[in-house]
Amino acid sequence: MYARTDRTTASRSRERMSYDRATAHAILDEAYHCALAFTVDGEPRVLPTLHVRIDDTLYLHGSTGSGPLLAARGDAGLAVCVSVTLLDGLVYGRSQFHHSANYRSVVAHGVAHLVTDDREKLRVMTTLVEKAGTGRSADSRPPNRRELAETAVLALPLHEVSVRTRTGGVREDEADHALPHWAGVVPLRLTAGRPEPDAGVTAPVPAYLQPPRSPWHTPATMRGEHVVLEPLTVGHAEELYASTTDPEVWQHLGTGQPTDPAGMARVVADALDAQYAGDRVAWVQRCARTGKVVGSTSYYEIDPERGAVGIGYTWLGRPWWRTGINTEAKLLLLSRAFDTLGANRVVWHTDIRNDRSQRAIERLGAQREGVLRMHRQRPDGSWRDTVQYSMTVDEWPEAQLNLRKRLRPAVPVAG
């Protein structure tokens, strides 16, 4: 427990106060930014900054170009007050007076000193980067001497610390309970969106920036003799555009044909957005013989509870039709669905006007189930009827044998 002081003792709502060390540390570790308050030449200053806790010291990030932070240099240091808050919800009362917020906050008082030892500073910077993503420090360049010299780090020993929280629902006068107004709590959470790569980045998004995924939502690499299925990334956009410029590739797809690499990048971004949301798992099809990226395919309508998944969003460059790539890609996807994931059912959807796709799906061993009328809109705005096919786990063994026979090279007849 932290000892109470005059500065950390509340004058009202004392029931919300705590001095528990573990609770304070948990809040400091979860939060990503804080407010640093101090005075310089009699003038108040408040700086938003990043922080990281190491044991019982709070380190605050800044720049040596910031004049006020230089006031922490020397034995006297700088008297500061640091506030960190996590906003957990908005509380709506029937009366305006009783609107409030649920939160967890830490306030720390003390004297901060500028860290001058480069080894300590580097340790703090590494820990701060690791807070942003476990494993990130090994996945990025450490600061050089110039960068380290331009970085200011303040060290604040955690001695005078208080925790203040509000949880629960609406607290208002009983007389207001009969008012005809909605009341309650709107929870707030800080959630990460899909990582957006910088221009020129072709490296895949690292695991520490991806949400936890079940195997059903993980685009594992799969290899065959004709095709390699590897997870789709933004770095594939230019090759995908170059391989699929024939308009016939896009004739019956739900996405209009990209007119340039930037358009293909948007198609890829849409697929990755859907994947991040858990609605798709997207791969590129790479020719196993040449290494060239020639198309894309996906899982969709992913339902682990029912053991069901769809295969679609498939497009393949015109020169690679009837080369075995598409057939083997389907074999790999079906094998993963039935043999690895334990699927009970796999489905396909295709435009009723796309006879070529229907025949291809039927050759896989799938059964036509029916027509979904006005199921999806085409890129031109018209409504399409969709033919639905499926394959069940009971049908998979025979279908697998037939697909492997189709892919088996013909044995030459001796003359």
UniProtKB/TrEMBL annotation:
Pfam families: Acetyltransf_3 (PF13302), Pyridox_ox_2 (PF12900). Signal peptide: none annotated. Residues 227-394 form the N-acetyltransferase domain. This is GNAT family N-acetyltransferase. It comes from Micromonospora echinofusca.
